[in-house]
């Protein structure tokens, strides 16, 4: 408006509003495969600078467009479309004066990819590796098929997050599990570049490889069904069993390397196989290599028992057995913790008195008879079987008495073990067995008297009678036979027509070789406490004191002393050196240098003397060496100064 020269007139200028402008950006006209999360974009311009408002209209036809949101001043808006549908859209804009509508565009929403897990089936157990996982993908948009990409997730967690594969082509994966005995969870996420699809989580189990955790152990089967001490049946069969892990699994038992038909369980029962057969089990379940047990052995046995007038007895040894061995029969006595020796007779013929011996095939009506007895508790085992030692002294001292007796050192080998009294026969022992006689009582020098002192002033004939009497009392054979007795038995007698049977299991005097092997107890020194007799030993008070710890010899009181008061040797034998000379079975003779096996001494008594060993209570140090030997008449009661100890042998000689 402006004043006019003509009074009463005004001039008006009219400025017209310019409508806002709109340009559609996306989706483009006719666009296909648009993501379901559609993002609409447009551009708005208002020439007058007004603030325009926009409204998005969407519909399934161009004639049915509806607002999908409140008006906005933005130029972007999201919309959730439905897969595969055709949509129409338009933008309406306005300012305070005018409204502008865009043209209508159309687009098609994308169809997302799909995926299916085809193997393994949910919960399926797998026992071999690798495990092949398979899946298949699809997309209704042909153009998207080439864009598909698969991500594979595997984990022991129920929501797997560990990606092991990302590929545009693979639809399988060979999975090698690090952990066995576990459940694995897996899924595939597929994408076509626009959208993704995650399959439901599936699972599969990885089995534990079959393994033997506890193998079979040796077992024994008793085939003697008539044993009165076996009232139950379990003795009459053997069982072998295994414990396994990695279930389920398959097992197969083998005997001597050959598969046993039908033996596929955890326990194998044996009723008729051979002694010495060996069994093992193989277990497998397809995961890893089969596992094989250690072998176990079968023992086939007869129970040991005998009959007398009171019926059957087992003498406390029913846990010992005869053991059958293949086509021959090996008869073995297993005495548990006791020392047991046996005399075995086959069809009336005595066999070697051993723990284990083998005879020919045993078939009816062959018979086996066994006598057995426990070794006296005071005896110690002397492990001599298959042992060789040197007997004698290669360099006797010049001042030694009877030094020539030890010359000609030679090897001695034993084929048997034996048992020896741990101490010398005491006066109490002798009186008990021999009816109370006491030959040591009288006008004797240096003879200690008392129950625990060694028996003294007895002849070798008395000693042999003592051995026979003790054998009978303790259930053994008598070793000595004779045709007559001169003198009073037990009090200074001499045996006529003497014969010694070393094959009998009975109590007797030791052979000289048995005595020295037992005295040495594995040592090679002169004394079994590890010292040699030299110019320097013993030469001091300390040396003498040391010797006195082990032996009674020429020091202090020269009388015999009670037994078992000194330190024993390594075989548990007391007083083997010193205190009193000990009688052996052998006649005295010079050694020869040739090796000997199980020697029993010369056959002839050319020197009219028996060997005595160990030295006595008055002996000088060189006379109590392990190798020292001497001799005496054996029947000279006046000069008798020896005692004795006894042995029982299992000498492998056949009568």
SSE layout:
Elements: E1 2-3, E2 10-11, E3 21-26, E4 31-34, E5 37-45, E6 53-59, E7 66-67, E8 76-80, E9 86-94, E10 99-101, E11 105-109, E12 114-119, E13 124-126, E14 131-138, E15 149-155, E16 163-167, E17 172-175, E18 182-191, E19 196-198, E20 202-206, E21 211-214, E22 219-222, E23 238-241, E24 243-245, E25 250-255, E26 258-259, E27 267-270, E28 278-284, E29 291-292, E30 296-303, E31 306-308, E32 311-313, E33 321-325, E34 328-332, E35 340-346, E36 349-350, E37 356-359, E38 368-374, E39 379-382, E40 388-391, E41 410-413, E42 418-421, H1 427-433, H2 460-473, E43 477-478, E44 480-481, E45 484-486, E46 494-496, E47 499-500, E48 506-508, H3 512-520, H4 541-550, E49 581-587, E50 596-597, E51 610-613, E52 629-632, E53 642-643, E54 647-649
Overall description:
The structure is a single chain. The protein is mainly beta. 6% of the residues lie in helices and 36% in strands. The strands form 15 sheets. Strands 22, 25, 26, 28, 29, 30, 33, 34 and 37 form a nine-stranded mixed sheet that branches. Strands 4, 6, 7, 9, 10 and 11 form a six-stranded mixed sheet that branches. A hairpin with a 4-residue loop joins strand 18 (182-191) and strand 19 (196-198).
Alpha-carbon distance between the termini? 162 Å
Number of helices: 4
Oligomeric assembly: single chain
- Molecular shape: rod-shaped
Number of strands: 54
What Rg do the Cα atoms give?
A: 54 Å
Structural class: mainly beta
Proportion of helical residues: under 10%
The averaged pLDDT comes out at 82
User: How much of the sequence is in beta strands?
Assistant: 35-45%
Biggest pleated sheet: 9 strands, mixed
Task: Name the poorly predicted regions.
Answer: 224-234, 304-342, 350-369
């Amino acid at each position: 408006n402006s004043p006019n020269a003509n009074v009463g007139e005004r001039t008006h200028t009219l400025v017209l509003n310019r409508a806002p402008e709109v340009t559609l950006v996306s989706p483009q006209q006719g666009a296909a495969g648009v993501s379901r999360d559609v993002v609409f974009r447009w551009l708005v311009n208002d020439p007058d600078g007004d603030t325009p408002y926009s409204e998005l209209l969407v519909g399934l036809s161009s004639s049915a467009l509806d607002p999908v949101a409140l008006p906005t001043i933005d130029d972007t808006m999201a919309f959730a479309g439905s897969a595969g549908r055709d949509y129409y859209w338009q933008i309406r804009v306005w300012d305070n004066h005018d409204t502008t509508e865009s043209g209508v565009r159309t687009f098609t929403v994308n169809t997302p990819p799909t995926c299916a897990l085809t193997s393994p089936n949910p919960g399926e157990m797998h026992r071999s590796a690798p495990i092949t996982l398979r899946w298949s993908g699809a997309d209704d948009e042909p153009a998207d098929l080439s864009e598909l990409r698969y991500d594979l997730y595997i984990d022991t967690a129920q929501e797997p997050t560990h990606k092991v594969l990302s590929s545009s082509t693979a639809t399988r994966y060979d999975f090698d599990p690090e952990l066995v005995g576990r459940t694995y969870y897996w899924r595939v996420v597929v994408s076509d570049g626009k959208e993704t699809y995650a399959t439901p989580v599936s699972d599969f189990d990885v089995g534990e490889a079959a393994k033997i955790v506890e193998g079979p152990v040796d077992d024994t089967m008793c085939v003697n069904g008539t044993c009165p001490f076996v009232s139950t049946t379990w003795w009459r069969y053997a069982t072998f069993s295994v414990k396994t892990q990695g279930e389920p699994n398959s097992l197969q038992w083998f005997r001597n390397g050959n598969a046993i038909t039908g033996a596929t369980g955890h326990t194998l029962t044996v009723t008729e196989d051979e002694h010495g057969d060996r069994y093992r089990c193989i277990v497998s379940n397809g995961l890893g290599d089969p596992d094989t047990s250690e072998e176990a052995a079968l023992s086939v046995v007869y129970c040991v028992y005998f009959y007398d007038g009171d019926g059957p007895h087992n003498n406390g040894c029913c846990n010992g057995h005869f053991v059958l061995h293949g086509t021959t029969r090996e008869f073995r006595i297993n005495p548990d913790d006791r020392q047991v020796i046996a005399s075995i007779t086959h069809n009336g013929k005595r066999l070697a008195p051993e723990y284990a011996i083998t005879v020919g095939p045993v078939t009816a009506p062959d018979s086996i008879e066994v006598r057995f007895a426990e070794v006296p508790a005071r005896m110690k085992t002397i492990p001599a079987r298959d042992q060789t030692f040197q007997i004698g002294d290669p360099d006797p001292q010049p001042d030694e008495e009877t030094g020539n007796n030890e010359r000609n050192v030679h090897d001695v080998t034993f084929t048997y073990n034996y048992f020896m009294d741990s101490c010398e026969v005491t006066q109490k022992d002798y009186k008990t067995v021999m009816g109370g006689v006491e030959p040591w009582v009288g006008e004797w020098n240096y003879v200690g008297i008392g129950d625990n002192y060694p028996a003294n002033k007895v002849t070798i004939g008395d000693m042999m009678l003592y051995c026979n009497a003790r054998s009978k009392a303790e259930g053994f054979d008598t070793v000595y036979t004779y045709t007559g007795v001169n003198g009073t038995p037990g009090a200074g007698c001499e045996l006529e027509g003497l014969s010694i049977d070393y094959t009998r299991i009975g109590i007797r005097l030791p052979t000289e070789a048995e005595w020295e092997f037992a005295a040495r107890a594995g040592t090679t020194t002169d004394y079994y406490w590890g010292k040699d007799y030299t110019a320097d030993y013993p030469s001091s008070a300390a040396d003498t004191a040391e010797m006195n710890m082990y032996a009674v010899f020429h020091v202090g009181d020269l009388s015999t002393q009670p037994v078992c008061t000194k330190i024993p040797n390594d075989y548990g034998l007391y007083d083997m050196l010193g205190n009193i000379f000990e009688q052996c079975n052998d006649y005295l003779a010079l050694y020869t240098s040739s090796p000997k096996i199980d020697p029993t001494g010369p056959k002839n008594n050319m020197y009219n003397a028996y060997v005595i060993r160990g030295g006595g209570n008055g002996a000088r140090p060189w006379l109590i060496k392990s190798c020292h030997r001497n001799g005496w008449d054996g029947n000279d009661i006046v000069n008798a100064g020896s005692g004795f100890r006894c042995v029982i042998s299992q000498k492998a000689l056949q009568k």
